[in-house]
Amino acid sequence: MNKLWAGRTEAETAKLADEFNSSIAFDSRMAKQDITGSMAHAAMLGAKGIITAQEAEVLIDGLQTILDDLKTGALQIDPAAEDIHMFVEQVLTDRIGNVGKKLHTARSRNDQVALDLRLYLRGEIDEISALTAQLASVICDKAEEYGDAIMPGYTHLQRAQPISFGHQLMAYAMMLLRDLDRLKDCRRRMNVSPIGCCALAGTTYDTDREMEAEALGFDGICLNSVDGVSDRDFAAELCAVLAIEMMHLSRLAEELILWSSWEFQFIELPDAYTTGSSIMPQKKNPDMAELVRGKTGRVYGDLMGILTVLKGLPLAYNKDMQEDKEGVFDACDTAKMCLAVMAGMLPGMKARRDRMRRAASEGFINATDLADYLVMKGLPFRSAYKISGALVGKCIREGKTLETLSLAEYREASPLIGDDVYTHIDLGVCVQKRTSAGGTSVQSVEQQIRAVRSRLEQDDGKDD
Ligand code: ARG
Predict the structure, then answer these.
(1) Which of 10, 134, 348, 393 has its CA 20 to 30 A from that of 455?
(2) Are 251 and 322 within 8 A, CB to CB?
(3) Nearest to 339 by CA among 137, 120, 146
(4) How much of the chain, in percent, has pLDDT values that exceed 90?
(5) Which of 13, 24, 83, 84 to mutate to test the pocket of ligand 1 (most atoms within 8 A of CB)?
C-alpha cells in the first residue's frame, strides 16, 4: 500500500513489519472522533486563511461522506490500513482529489491521535457515568424495598451488630457516588485539546487552537506542545478510576455470591442471571457475579499495562504509545458490561427476610445493645461490656440466647437489670435505635436514599 508517510525511505516495508505496526484493528473504533476532529481542523484552516474557505468546505463535505458511508456500511474499514488516521485521509484523497492532501496542514498524527483518544474516552466517561448512576438508582430501589429487613452486619466476617439489608446495600450506593465524582473529575482534566501541538513543537502556521478546541467541546487547550503529544495521563487516570469502580463492583459481587450460597441463603438471584450445572441438577450458580469479580482483574491489568508502557518513555511521542489504547478500551468495555449486568440482575434479587433474621438472632449481635442498656442504668461502659460478655458466655455454655435468659438469670449478673431489658435487646429495636446520622435506623436509611437520589438527579442535569 502506498504510504502517506513515505518520505525519505525508498524500499518497501516488510509485510511482517506492516502487520506489527498496524493499529487499525483496534483504533478504528475512533473513526467518528477522527473525522469530527478533522472537520474542526479543516474549518479552522479555512477560517484562518491557511487554506481557502472553499477548500475547507470541500474537505468537510468529503469527510462527511466518509462518516455517513461508514455508518451505513457503504464504506468498510480497510484492515490493511496502518491506522484510522491514515485510512480516513487516504479515502478522503481518493474521493476529493488533491484538496484532500491539504487536510494534514499544521497538524501531525501525534496531536491527531491524542485528540481522537481524548474525544473517544470523553464519550466513554459519559456512558460509564450514566451506567453508574443507573446502578446506584437500582440499589436505592432495593434498599427502599428492604429498609426494614434485619440481617447481621459483619466485621471479620463474624456476626457483629444488627443492621438492615437496605443499610448494607446503601453502602454500595455511596461507593458509586464516589465513582461518579472520580469520573467527572477525570473528564474535567481530560477535556483539554492537544490539537495544534503538531509533531511536538507547535507550528509556524497562524493557527487558532482555541477555535478548534471550542468547536470540539473542549474546555481549553494543552498549554505545552511537548506535553500535549506526550501526555496519556487521562487514559491512565481513567483506568485507575475504573479499577477502583470495579473493585467496588467486585466487593458487591462477592457478597452476592456469599449471600446466595446454601450456607447463607440470604438472597436468591434471578434465574435470568444465574446458570445451572451440566452435572449437578441442584445447582444455581451466580456466574454473572463471579464474572464481575473475575473481570476486575482484567481492569487492574489494564491500569498496570498503561502505567508500565508510559514509565520509561522519553518525551515526546514514541510508538510505544500506540499500546495505550487496547487496555483503556478494554477497561471501558469491561466496566460498561459489568455495570449493565449488575443493574440488570439486582432488580430481580429477592432477599429472604426470615433467613437474615434468623442469622441475626443466632450470633448474640445484640450484646452491644445489652451493654448500652446497662450504661443507661448507670454503669460505666467497660463494666457493662464485661457483664454483657459474661452473659453471652453463659448463653453459649447453656445453649441459650440473650432473648431466652430469664429475668432471674439477668439479675444474678446485675441487679440493675429490669424486665425492660427484653425490649432493649429486641433486634428490631436495636436497629431502630441507631438513629445517629448515617446509622442503620429505617429513617436514616430513607434519608440516605433521598440524598443519593437527589445527587443522581443533579448530575443528570450535567451542571458544570
Ligand atoms: N497509530 C499511532 C498511535 O496509535 C498514531 C500516531 C502515529 N504517529 C507517529 N508519529 N508514528 O499512536
Answers:
(1) 348
(2) no
(3) 137
(4) 91
(5) 83
Render pLDDT for 407-463 as a digit per residue (tens, 0 to 9).
Answer: 999 999 999 999 999 999 999 888 888 989 999 999 999 999 999 999 999 887 554
d(CA 301, CA 316): 25
277 is catalytic: yes
**H-run or E-run covering 173:** helix 165-190
Per DSSP bridges, beta strands 350-351 and 267-268 are antiparallel
- The pLDDT of 284-299, averaged and rounded, is 97
Identify the active-site residue in 167, 277, 414, 444: 277
Verify whether ligand 1 is closer than 6 Å to residue 107 (CB atom). no
Q: Which residue has the cell 481524548?
A: 118
Which of helix, strand or coil describes residue 349? coil
Per-residue model confidence (pLDDT) at position 27? 98
Interval between CA 17 and ligand 1 midpoint (Å): 15
Reduced to 3 states (helix: H, G, I; strand: E, B; else coil), residue 154 is: strand
Closest by CA to 302, choosing from 236, 232, 233, 234, is: 236
Q: Is the pLDDT of residue 1 over 60?
A: no
DSSP state of 146: T
Instruction: Name the grid cell of 107.
Output: 497538524
Q: If we measure between CA atoms, which residue out of 410, 377, 439 comes closest to residue 430?
A: 439
Return the C-alpha cell found at 267.
438472597
- Ligand 1 atom with the shortest distance to the CA of 27: 4
Does residue 317's CB lie within 6 angstroms of at least one atom of ligand 1? yes
Of the candidates 319, 46, 18, 408, the residue with the CA atom closest to the CA atom of residue 207: 46
Does any ligand 1 atom lie closer than 6 A to the CB of residue 117? Answer: no
* Model pLDDT, residue 463: 47
Task: Give the whole-angstrom CA distance, residue 368 versus residue 393.
Answer: 14
User: For this structure, is 193 an active site residue?
Assistant: no
Q: For 198-202, 330-334, 362-366, 385-389, which range has the lowest pLDDT when averaged over its residues?
A: 362-366
